[in-house]
Design brief:
GO cellular component, one term: Golgi transport complex
Helix content: over 70%
Shape: rod-shaped
Pfam families: COG7
Radius of gyration: 27 Å
Strand content: under 5%
Number of helices: 1
Protein name: Conserved oligomeric Golgi complex subunit
Distance between the termini: 87 Å
Number of strands: 0
Organism: Trema orientale
Length: 63
């Protein structure tokens, strides 16, 4: 195998790695988007829970 053959092998390997990196990047992006959406949907309930805990704390301090 000559120098050009070795360069072709390296180039093919780099193209393969780039493709795999792109796929993993897209999977991570989709996962982050999904988790972000779920988090935003949980926000109102979490806020209500925090408000309820604050109210409970205030009522306990008044006794």
């Amino acid at each position: 195998m000559g120098q050009l053959g070795a360069l072709d092998l390296v180039d093919d390997h780099l193209v393969d790695l780039e493709m795999k990196l792109q796929i993993v990047s897209e999977e991570i992006s989709a996962s982050l988007e999904e988790q972000s959406t779920v988090s935003l949907l949980c926000m109102p309930r979490s806020i209500r829970d925090v408000i309820r805990l604050c109210d409970d704390t205030v009522s306990l301090c008044c006794y």
